[in-house]
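User: Hi! I'm working on a homework problem where we have to compare a predicted structure to a textbook description. Could you give me the structure for the chain below?
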Amino acid sequence: MGVLPDILIFDEVGSTNDVARDLAEKNAAAGTAVAARRQTAGRGRRGHAWASPRGNLYLSVLLRPRVAPSRLPGLAAACGLGALDGLAALGISNEPQLKWPNDVLARGRKLGGILVEAGRDGAGEAFAVCGLGINVESAPRGLGAVCLTELGAAPSFSTLAEALRSGIVARVDGWAASSGVEPLAGIRDDYLARLAWLGEPVVALSPEGEPLAAGRLETVDAWGRAVLETADGPAFFSAEQASLRPATPSKL
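Assistant: Happy to help. Predicted structure tokens:
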């Protein structure tokens, strides 16, 4: 991993991902990171607005994995595992899980979200930015979310940012160096070990929130697709096609 650049810390920005993208387009090095205490234009998957109040952590990490394009769908999973690695380095390891395809959960509730965006820099080289929002002091009301203070954890802003950045960079470097052509090559076993609701009844929802299928979450395959065992047989969903919710009543 080598020595990483200092994290650029802002009191407030529009979007840390946008700042990191601007740095990437100017050929900033892999591992460059931007952290903010508040965002005014944060976003999540599919362009959804991301509430970004003061008291939490908003972090974006520039990544330059040298992998075949066919493997890139696995990058978000590698980043998710890296986030858990960073939390574990701070002693927060008995609670967090990953929700397919891109959330961090604790106690079955949303602790944070991940947004990976790709681009090309001024030299035409590909890069990706991993944006991560973690609820530290507060969690959005009415959304079944949780924050680190509820878990009894109280890392400082800079300590948490450094641990998460280091975890993400190290995990992505290991993923990129692994052999195999599938997106989850080298990380699938770890991913499944930290996956929420595995073996439990879930509902697959379309981007518009419409139910697509209901069944037991059998696995996530090597290509990153959620596999549900339904009454009509296996159903496969990519992250672009669906998100998952537990079939039992929940606020998630």
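For your comparison, note the following. The mean pLDDT is 92. Residues 8-192 form a domain with the BirA Bifunctional Protein; domain 2 fold (CATH 3.30.930.10). Good luck with the assignment!
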